[in-house]
Amino acid sequence: MPGPGLNKAPSFNGEMSELLEFFELFEELALSCALTDEQKCKAIVRYTDTPTKRFWVTLIGFESKDYTVFKASILAKYPHADQGIHYTICDLERIVLNTAKSDISTETELLQYYRQF
User: Fold this and answer.
1) CA neighbours within 13 Å on the CB side: how many for 117?
2) What confidence tens digit (pLDDT) does each residue in 18-31 have?
């Protein structure tokens, strides 16, 4: 497993909308390294910020090193994390106002604009 903060290392800073992607990246890496449940429980908290780590190690499944239970405990503490990123009307207005003054004249510019949604 790569060290925390390195190029290919997953990381989680407590942002709920990024939790599922973090688990996906971590589990893919853990599978490629053939980690056991015990090793997964120990390793996953290394890829979080300090406040998150302090919280996660108190959850059910961490001490018993049962990764499935531990992951379920974590997900239970982040309601609606499975819904991913949600944008507000203010976010949409900001995008429109920022791009209203510029002309979109190439396909590249159009795709760049489209990816903001």
Assistant:
1) 8
2) 888 899 999 999 99
